[in-house]
Amino acid sequence: MTLTAENITRQYFRKSRGSNVFLALKETDLIIEPGRLIEVCGRSGSGKSTLLNILAGLLAPASGRVMYDGADIYAMEDAERSKFRNLNIGIIPQGQTGLHSLTVLENVTLPYPMYGEKAPNEHAMELLEQVGISELASAYPNELSGGEMRRLSIARAMLRNPGVILADEPTGDLDDENTHTVLRLLREAADKGAAVLLVTHENEAAKYADTVFEMESGILRKS
Amino acid sequence: MKQHRIGATDIVLLVINVLFLLGMLFWFGPCDHVKEDGSFMNCHWAGVVLAGIATVMTVIALAHLLIPDAGMKAGLSAALVPCSVFAFIVPGNLISLCMMNTMRCRAVMTPAAIACPVLVIIAAAADIVVQLRRKAK
Amino acid sequence: MIFSRYLSVKNLKRKPARTAALVILTAFLAFAISGGSVIVASLQNGLSSYRSRLGADIVVVPNEARSKGTLDDILLQGIPGYFYMDSSKLDKIRSIEGVEIASPQFYLATSSAGCCSTSVQIIGFDPDTDFLIQPWIRETYSGSIGDYDLIVGANISIPVNGKLTFYNTECRVAAQPDQTGTGLDSAIYANMNTIKEMMRSADTLGFNYFSDVDADHAVSSVMVKVADGYSVDDVAGDINIHVRRVEATQAKTMVSSIAGGLLGVSAVIGVLIGLVWVLAFIILLVAFTMITNERTKEFAILRVVGASQKMLTALIRTESVMISAGGAVIGTALSCVIVIPFSGIIGSRLGLPYLLPCALQICLIAAGSVAASMLAGLLTSFISGSRIRKNETGLVLREGA
Questions:
Q1: Which domain holds residue B81?
Q2: Contacts of residue A93 in chain C, CB cutoff 8 Å?
Q3: Most buried residue among A90, B60, C151, C249 by CB atoms closer than 10 A?
Q4: pLDDT band, residue C396 (cuts 50/70/90)
C-alpha cells in the first residue's frame, strides 16, 4: 500500500502572549512506497509526531490530503476511516498504550474483537515470542515495565500484517538488544511489502532505513 | 483448579447473615411478654429458634469466607438454602404466633424472617453460579 | 454492540471497588424511588379503602368518644375502644328529617382472651338495618351471619379449630374479609344477639364497661345514610341540635382530615424521592465525568486501534447501562423485600390507612423505579460522553506521551 501526503499543514492554538497560532507542520509532501522504511528524526517538538498522527488519520490536517493507494482518508466518514485504520494501518503510538483492563494477549489481539472477529491467539503468541514477552501473556499492563509495554504495542500493530506501519518512538525505554529486535522486525515488515514510517531519536535506526528525513520546526527535509 | 480467596459474594453472604443474627437477637425479636403463669408465649420460642438458625447460617457464611476452595464454597452456599427455607417457615407455620397481625411477632419478627432468608437465598444462588464458573476455569 | 459489551465487562471487573461504589449509589437511588413509591401507593390505597369502608354519610357517637379521638383510634389503627350511649338516642336520630337509615353499632373490647397480650375490638351490628358491614362481608362470604358467628378482620389469625371464645362465649369463625388497610382489619364482627350475650357475660365476670348505661339498651355509634334530596350538612346539624350529648360528624370530614395527613406524608416522601434522584444524578455525573477524564488516553488508544467515535460513545453508554441496571435491580429488589413484608409495621407507625397495592401495581412501580434509575445513568453517560467527542486523538497522544 502506498501512503501519499500532499501539501499537508497543521496549526495549534496556544494560550500565550503574542501570536496564539503555532504552525506545527508547514507544507509537507511525503510518499512512502511498499517495501520501504522511511525514518524521520528531529528534536522534540519539531513536528514529527504531528506528521505521524496526520498520516494515521488521527489528526485532521489544516490543509492537504493524505491518501492510501489513492484514497483520501480524510474524505471518509469517521466510522469508515476508523475501520480502514483497523484493517490497514498498524500504529505504534508514543508512550504507554496498553488498556488496563485487558491482559497482554487481549491487548495485542484487540483489533480483532473490535469488529467482531475471532482473535488469532496463536499468531499473537508468536508475535509476543518474537518481541520477547510471551511469558507475560496473562499479565496486566500495570505489571509490565515501560519497555515491555512498548513491545506489546509493537506486537499489536503488526498482528494484522498491515499495509502501512507508523511507529512513533518504538524503541523508547528499550535496551540495546530489544532496540535491535524491534528495528529488525520493522525492517522485516518492510521487506515483506509494508510501507513503514519510523519516527525516532534512535541513532541506530538509520542502518535499517531506506531513506532518512529530518524534521525541524515543522519543515521536513531529506537528510 | 484455581482457588480464590475473598470475593464480593463472600462478603455479601456474611453481612446478610450477621445482620439476620443481630436482628433476631436485638432488633427483630418477639416481645418479652409472659403469660399469667409466668411461662413464655409461643412467639418467644419462635424467636429463639430463629436466632439459632441465624447462628448456624452465620457460621456457614464465615466458613464460606475462610475456605478458599470454589467447590466447597458452592456447597456451603447450597447449604444456606434449606436453612433459609427452614427459617422462613418457622414463624406462624412450624411454631404458631400471636393472634393479631399487629403484634410484634407478626409485624416485625415474621417479616424479618422472610426478608433476610430471601436475601440469603438470592445471594447464595449468585454465589453458586460464581463459584461453579471459577471451578470450571 | 458486541465489542462495547466485551470491553465494558472487562473494565468493570478490573475496577471492582469503583464499580461497586457506582452500583451501590444507583441501588440506593432505586431503593428510595421504589420504596417511597410503594409507601405512597399504599397510603393512597388505604385512603380509598377507608373511604369506601366508612360508607355512611354521618357517624354519630357519644361526645366523649369524639373528644377522646377513640373512634379514630378504632377506625384507623385498630386500637380497641368502647363508648356507649343510651339506645333512645337511636330512636331520636331516626326521627330526624332526612335520615333514611340509622344503623347502630356496638363496640366491645375483649380482655386478653388467652391468645395474646392485647385486647381485640369486637363490633356488633344490627343485621336488619346494617348497610356497611354486611355488603363488605358479602364480597368474600355469601352465607348468613347467625348467632355466635364471627367475621374476623384480616389482621387476626383464625385458630385451627375455627373457634374463638370471648367472655366465656364460644363462637364460630364464619368468614374473613380481605384486608382494608384500616383499623377494621383488627376487629371482629358479630350480630347484636351475639354481642349482647358477650356483654352479659362480661358484666357477670365483673367487667364494668357500661357505667350508668343499661347494657341491654346501649349502643356505641349510629351510622346514618341520608335520604336523597337532603343535605348531609343540614342533617348532621339537625342531629347535633336535637339529640343531646352526641357528636354527629360527616364521614367526608373524617376522610378529608385523613386525606390531609396523607397528602402531607406523600408530599414529604415525594420531595425526598426527588431530592435523592437529583443528588444521585449529580454524584453519578461527577463520578462518570471524572472517570471519562481519567480514561482520555485509553480512548485515544482505542481510536488508534480503529475504534470510531460511535464505538467510544457506545462503550461509555454500555458501561453506564450495566452499572445503573445492576444497581437499579438490586435496589428495587431490596426495597421490595423490605417494604412489602414490613408493611404492617410501616402502616402502624404512620398511623394512617395503609393497604399494599396489588401485585401488578407493585410490578409497575418496580419497573418505573428501574427505568428512573437507569435514566440517571444514561443521562450522565450522555453528558460525560460528549467530552470524548470533543477530543482529537492526535492531540491527546501528543499531550499524553
A1: 8-136
A2: 300-301, 304, 397
A3: A90
A4: low
Residue C112: predicted pLDDT = 58
Whether residues C229 and C354 fall in one domain: no
Q: Quick one: what percent of chain C has pLDDT higher than 70?
A: 91
Q: Is residue B3 part of a domain?
A: no
- Do residues C180 and C108 share a domain? yes
**C31 and C63 share a domain?**
no
B-chain CB neighbours of C342 within 8 Å are: 107-108, 111, 115
Give residue C194's domain range: 56-250
- Kindly state the average pLDDT of the residues B17-42: 89
Q: Say if B62 falls within a structural domain.
A: yes
Interface residue ranges in chain A relative to chain C, Cβ cutoff 8 Å: 49-50, 53-54, 56, 58-60, 78-79, 82-83, 85-87, 91, 93-95, 97-102, 106, 110-111, 113-116, 140, 156, 168-169
Q: What pLDDT is recorded for position C392? A: 64
Q: Which residues of A touch C305 (CB under 8 A)?
A: 85-86, 91, 110-111, 114, 156
DSSP string covering chain A, please? --EEEEEEEEEEE--SSS--EEEEEEEEEEEE-TT-EEEEE--TTSSHHHHHHHHTTSS--SEEEEEETTEEGGGS-HHHHHHHHHHHEEEE-SS----TTS-HHHHHTTHHHHTTPPP-HHHHHHHHHHHT-GGGTT--GGGS-HHHHHHHHHHHHHTT--SEEEEESTTTT--HHHHHHHHHHHHHHHHTT-EEEEE---GGGGGG-SEEEEEETTEEEE-
What pLDDT, on the 0 to 100 scale, is given for residue B58? 97
Domains of chain A: 3-93+160-222 (3.40.50.300)
Is B1 among the domain residues? no
